[in-house]
Specification:
Order of helices and strands: EHEHEEHEHEHEE
Distance between the termini: 36 Å
Length: about 190
């Protein structure tokens, strides 16, 4: 699914991947896709985007200063998609700084791109989260991972230092990054 996402600094990216790798190792199977890029989605874009759309988004984002963001993870959550498919995620707190950045991006891009699921991603209805990319997110696998994660301290502070336009393909489990903009250090 194409979208605008916040990506993690290298250290936090590697720490999240370490959690995923440990889960795979402890279960002796590839239950989590470690090839996905840990991220927080800010907006979803229609699948029929063009190179013109990509260039337009990149030009808009490159013309504005966006600050690095401290993101607080405070547990896990899940929602049901259908009878035996779930989404498991790390819950993130929607702090004032997070809201400010999200609203700014939404204002910059909201009317200039073909959005998908606006009701779930607009600043007024947003539930920020970092999806845990499970290969087969059925009830059995999700419950196994939840049980594992319950033994960890999931009060984590992570840093997002870049914003990207990406497209994830669930069919092949790969991510294509169309562009990335580094976020600047917040001035005091």
């Amino acid at each position: 699914m194409p979208g605008i996402v916040l990506r993690l600094c290298k250290k936090d990216h590697l720490n999240i991947l370490k959690i995923y790798k440990n889960i795979n190792k402890d279960f002796d199977e590839d239950i989590i896709n470690i090839n996905q890029i840990p991220h927080v989605s800010l907006m979803r874009i229609q699948k029929d985007f063009t190179i013109k759309s990509i260039n337009n988004i990149e030009n808009i984002l490159n013309k504005t200063d966006l600050s690095k963001l401290n993101i607080k993870i405070n547990g896990i959550g899940m929602f049901k998609i259908n009878d035996n498919k779930y989404v498991l995620y790390f819950k993130t707190i929607y702090t004032d700084d997070f809201k400010f950045l999200h609203k700014k991006i939404w204002k910059l891009l909201g009317k200039k791109v073909d959005l998908l699921q606006e009701d779930k991603y607009s600043p007024s209805s947003f539930s920020p989260h970092l999806t845990i990319p499970i290969f087969n997110p059925n009830k059995r696998n999700v419950l196994k991972i939840i049980k594992y994660l319950m033994d960890l301290d999931l009060n984590l502070n992570i840093i997002s230092d870049k914003i990207s336009f990406i497209n994830t393909s669930k069919e092949i489990g790969k991510v294509k990054i169309y562009f990335t903009k580094n976020l600047i250090k917040k001035s005091i």
